[in-house]
Write a structure and sequence with these properties.
11 helices, alpha/beta, about 290 residues
Length: about 290
């Protein structure tokens, strides 16, 4: 257990039990931190703990997770259906709801009312300063951008807002260390550092697919074999969620222009409900 776990003795809240929220909850709970997830969807909430137990068992089988930590998961992880079900005075609350500013503003205001020591957004593209605008304590708010799959990727991108205090940044760095992550600190510019790099590659791969340059499989193989990427940009887009990619494209293209404009194939897939792995089909077939 990392010594920095002592910085999180009051526990962590995660608002949103989707792919990213579940992954964030998993890494905190398996690090020994009491973790509460807010998930209003009853079906998703019911399956959340079980799915993370399966993930923990796989981690033990692969030698990635200590068996004692996997066994402790049940007692450390809880689920509630509303933000006001979070305990008051948590060390950290992270919102992981979809990339829609109005939704995030509502969620963050409700989370701040639970008086956490530190409040964070997992946004990959929205302005931290705009999200902080309605908060009573903007100095205790920042971005903590995790990457999917959260249990495998070692980075947390910490985004400093104009009002973010040095104490908040130190607390976010300590939280990252407690779950075995490294962190980088970036200024609050649209897309930060990682989303600008990641999405420009993803959108270009989609345009190459539209133009018939190569198949989706071969475009991804080029990224993996020529440049050493662990996964191709189209597979990664399916894992992230094509609806998420489309939200980001619409946000960033309004700021940076045509390079981030949503490719037509992305809009078409989202329109027909093929959102990637979570729906079984996107650029690839995930039903198997």
């Amino acid at each position: 257990m990392n010594s920095d776990i002592n910085a999180l003795i009051n526990g962590v809240g995660v608002v949103g039990g989707g792919t990213m929220g579940a992954g964030i909850a998993y890494v905190f709970a398996t690090a020994g931190v009491p973790t509460t997830v807010v998930e209003p969807d009853g079906g998703r909430a019911a399956g959340l703990v079980g799915s993370l137990q399966v993930r923990a068992r796989r981690g033990v089988e692969r030698g990635k997770l200590d068996a004692a930590r996997a066994d402790a998961l049940d007692g450390l992880l809880s689920v509630t259906d509303a933000v006001d079900g979070l305990p008051e005075g948590l060390d950290l609350v992270i919102e992981t709801v979809p990339e829609r500013q109005a939704l995030k503003l509502d969620v963050l205001a409700a989370a701040e009312a639970r008086v956490p020591a530190l409040l964070a957004s997992n946004t990959s593209a929205l302005s931290i300063d705009e999200l902080a605008g309605a908060l009573a304590r903007p100095e205790a708010f920042l971005g903590m951008h995790f990457f999917n799959p959260v249990w495998s990727l070692p980075l947390v991108e910490i985004v400093r807002g104009e009002a973010t205090s040095e104490a908040a940044i130190a607390a976010a760095r300590a939280a990252a260390v407690a779950i075995g992550k490294e962190s980088i600190l970036v200024r609050n510019v649209p897309g930060f550092a990682t989303s600008r790099l990641d999405n420009i590659a993803a959108f270009e791969a989609m345009r190459m697919l539209e133009q018939g340059v190569a198949s989706a499989e071969d475009i991804d193989r080029a990224a993996v074999l020529a440049y050493g990427h662990p996964i191709g940009p189209l597979h990664l887009s399916d894992i992230v969620g094509l609806d998420v990619r489309l939200d980001i494209a619409r946000n960033l293209s309004g700021i940076y222009g045509e390079a981030y404009a949503p490719p037509a194939v992305l809009e078409q897939l989202v329109e027909r409900g093929d959102l990637g792995r979570k729906t079984g089909r996107g650029f690839f077939d995930w039903t198997a």
